[in-house]
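Tip: read the tokens left to right.
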């Protein structure tokens, strides 16, 4: 048994299947949909504080706070990546990565060789492909992505600077779609990735892409780790899971799984939520 197995997670929901499970394997072995009607199944994952912070500005731009990041959440992040055909990321993330201000989250399984073995056994390429959403196209593609044998897709606005499009093409990117405006729409992203044959797309981007997908009913599931600590922060110094104009109507999810991680020391407890998009019907978990 390794550190990822101790202590075990307590399954709180569904309540009729109460039990205890190790962290490793929780999302690797659970059944996940593959989309349909030419659209991929899209999902995202966030680690948040009790007061809803996903990142804090500590002077050099917003980052996931060290106070909430933790190895057990990271394992689950990586398991979700192992299940994907394609990862969705952002221009801002690639700028921050190049500036040394962001963790390199795109390669799968550096610390977890079993995840690559799992993909191989499942007939999947070692690394999921990558799709970048950016209005500015003002970023550099990390050469390692192409070296890892991944296809790199760009969503580029119709009126994007041709020199930037060409620079990314030379660096190995292909165009997934030219979007009607600088702000790509969720349905443009999903349709294009569906047409390219992707069946499971994992958004590893942040709150703007989450909103872009949600606004067009394009986020099918949300995985959330809630660390049981409050962080605070002044207005403007933190980000939450969804950023942009209010979602009207609100986007509803239903609880599909809830696990308590009691933590191995004070301050380490958290819970893991799996939420599925509730489309056009009452949420059964609320009994409505
Ligand atoms: N706690 C967590 O689990 C978690 C998870 C993910 C991210 N984060 C944090 O969230 C913050 C932001 O991450 P992020 O930059 O990857 O995500 P983001 O806020 O979703 O993406 C921002 C960038 O994506 C592009 N973009 C977003 N929506 C777009 C649209 N509709 N059309 C065209 N381009 C669009 C823009 O790129 P251009 O500027 O290039 O046009 C924009 O600057 C970071 O601080 C990160 O640490 C936290």
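Filled-in amino acids:
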């Amino acid at each position: 048994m390794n550190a990822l197995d101790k202590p075990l997670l307590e399954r709180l929901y569904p309540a009729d299947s109460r039990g205890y499970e190790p962290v490793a394997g929780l999302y690797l072995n659970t059944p996940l949909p593959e989309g349909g009607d030419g659209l991929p199944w899209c999902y995202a994952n966030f680690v948040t504080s009790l007061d809803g912070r996903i990142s804090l500005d500590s002077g050099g731009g917003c980052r996931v706070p060290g106070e909430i990041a933790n190895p057990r959440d990271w394992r689950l992040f990586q398991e979700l990546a192992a299940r994907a055909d394609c990862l969705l990321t952002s221009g801002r993330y690639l700028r921050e990565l190049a500036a040394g201000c962001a963790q390199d989250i795109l390669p799968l399984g550096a610390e977890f060789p079993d995840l690559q073995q799992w993909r191989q056994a499942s007939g999947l390429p070692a690394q999921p492909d990558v799709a970048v959403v950016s209005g500015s196209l003002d970023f550099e593609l990390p050469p390692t992505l192409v070296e890892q044998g991944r296809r790199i897709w760009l969503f580029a606005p119709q009126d994007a600077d041709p020199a930037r499009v060409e620079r990314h093409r030379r660096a190995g990117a292909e165009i997934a779609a030219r979007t009607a405006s600088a702000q790509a729409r969720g349905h443009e992203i999903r349709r294009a990735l569906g047409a390219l044959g992707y069946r499971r797309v994992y958004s590893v981007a942040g709150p703007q892409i989450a909103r872009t997908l949600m606004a067009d009913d394009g986020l099918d599931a949300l995985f959330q780790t809630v660390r049981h600590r409050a962080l605070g922060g002044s207005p403007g110094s933190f980000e939450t899971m969804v950023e942009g104009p209010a979602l009207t109507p609100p986007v509803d999810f239903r609880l599909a799984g809830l696990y308590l991680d009691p933590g191995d020391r004070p301050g380490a407890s958290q819970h893991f939520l799996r939420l599925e998009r509730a489309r056009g019907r009452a949420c059964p978990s609320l009994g409505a």
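The chain has one domain: 3-286. Residues 164 and 241 are 29 Å apart (CA to CA).
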